[in-house]
């Protein structure tokens, strides 16, 4: 360009020049001017720096938003975890669930031997609320009875004695060579056991009435 641009015009054009909005001819004139003018060069440098900083802001904002989102997620997850823990805690202390009845709340009565060697017994339990489950596990050698009562952890209901139905346990098994050697009640664990009957124990023989009751039971069973 024949006519050299003066500093004022160049500096007016610089913002557009930096943004790439100026035409090729203007760019060429500005570059020619900058090559010889230290002042405008400095202005360009400071403007470029500012522009970069301005452009850098949205990036920082995005990062900041990401951080906020991450923090919100952390808060949300933490809230869920805390809520679940509170619910579990409430359930633990106030919810009704099954508890094994300890052996010191259980008594065994009417243990006698039938003429065919079968052992009869009745288990009673001193429980609050109600008995939810009774299990009788027999592997052919030992029989283990358990009782569960459904109550709250800190139940303030009064206890009452509940007798379970009669039980007859055959000691000799016709279909296998197994012979039962022990019948137990198990409360809170293996160390909380009551021996109901063990092989070799001296227990009463059934009277006529008890034998009749047993026959009645067998008839019902096979019916
Ligand atoms: Zn200049």
UniProtKB/TrEMBL annotation:
Residues 7-40 form the Putative zinc-finger domain. It comes from Brevibacillus reuszeri. The lineage of its organism: Bacteria, Bacillati, Bacillota, Bacilli, Bacillales. It comes from the Bacteria. The keyword Transmembrane applies. Pfam families: zf-HC2. The chain crosses the membrane at residues 75-94. Keywords: Membrane, Transmembrane, Transmembrane helix. This is Putative zinc-finger domain-containing protein. The keyword Transmembrane helix applies.
